[in-house]
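This part of the workshop introduces the protein records we will be handling. Getting from the letters to the C-alpha cells is the skill we practise here. An example says more than a description, so a record of this kind follows:
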Amino acid sequence: MALTRSAPVPLGSPPPPFGLPATDGGAYSLDDFRRAKALMVIFLCNHCPYVLAWLDRIGAVAREFAPKGLRAVGISSNDPLTFPQDSFPMMKEFARERQLPFPYLFDESQDVARAYGATCTPDIYVYSAARELAYHGRVDDNHADPLRATRRDLRNAVAAILAGKRAPAQEPSMGCNIKWRV
C-alpha cells in the first residue's frame, strides 16, 4: 500500500456538506452536527494498517472531548469493488466490532472525499464552532507504537479548538491512499 500524505487545505475553509448512509442504519448530514462546539471529520476505512494503528487513539480523543462539545464522524470513501473489505456490509461489521464512538458513513460516490480534498486514510479535519477548518493533520508522531508517541497532535489540537485557541503546528496525516474508482 502506497504511503500517502494528506493534501494541504486552507485553514478557515468551511466543511463541504454531505448526506450519507451510516452503519447504524441512519443517515447523517453536516447539519446533524450543527450544535457541536467542534466537529472532527475522519476519512478512514476498514483495512488500512495506518487506520488500524491509530483508530483507538482517534476514538479516545472522540470520547474524551465529547462531554466538552466535540462531535466526530467517520467516512469511508474507498471503492468497494476494488476493496471488498471496505464495502458497506463490512463497514457495519467493523463499526460493531470496533465499537466506534462516532457514526461511520459510506461515501459510495466518492463525491464527499473529493469535496474535502481527502487523499489518505486516516485524513482528519477538525472544524471550530464557527465551522471553519482549524486543524487538518496527523493523530500523533508514532503510528506504530502509541507509547513512543511524543506529540499528541490531534488531542492537543482539539483541546485548543474547544478552548477557543489556535491549534498547534500541523503536520500532514499519512496513511494509505483513498482507493478511487477507475
User: Anything to note?
Assistant: The longest strand covers residues 70-76. The first helix runs from residue 49 to 65.
